[in-house]
Amino acid sequence: MLGLSRRHSHFVYGVIQSGLTCGIASGIASVPLLAEGAFLASWLRAWLLAWAAMLPVVILAAPLIRRLADALTLEEQG
């Protein structure tokens, strides 16, 4: 393990979540390039750009989204 403190888990979550989401989305967007043989280069370029843009958004938005989700849902009783 990396040995990071649990108090940093929201940052670790944000890195993993944004990287995975951007990787899937850019892969889907790059599928038309499979026939040209340019899929991997296009996907990697798109993924890096999308991830660099989305990581700060995810890190900053996660606490707000968590509070909104808590406000829209009920806690289980018993």
Total beta strands: 0
Compute the separation of the termini in Å: 35 Å
- What is the quaternary state of this protein? single chain
Largest sheet report: none
InterPro entries: DUF2798
GO molecular function: transferase activity
Transmembrane segments: 12-34, 46-65
Keywords: Membrane, Transferase, Transmembrane, Transmembrane helix
Give me the secondary-structure topology.
Elements: H1 9-30, H2 39-72
Helix pairs in contact: 1-2
Can you describe what's shown?
With 78 residues, this protein is an all-alpha fold. It has a domain at 15-68. The chain contains 2 helices and no strands. The radius of gyration is 17 Å and the shape is elongated. The N and C termini lie far apart (35 Å).
Based on the model shown, name its key terms:
single chain, 78 residues, mainly alpha, 2 helices, membrane, transferase activity, transmembrane helix, transferase, DUF2798
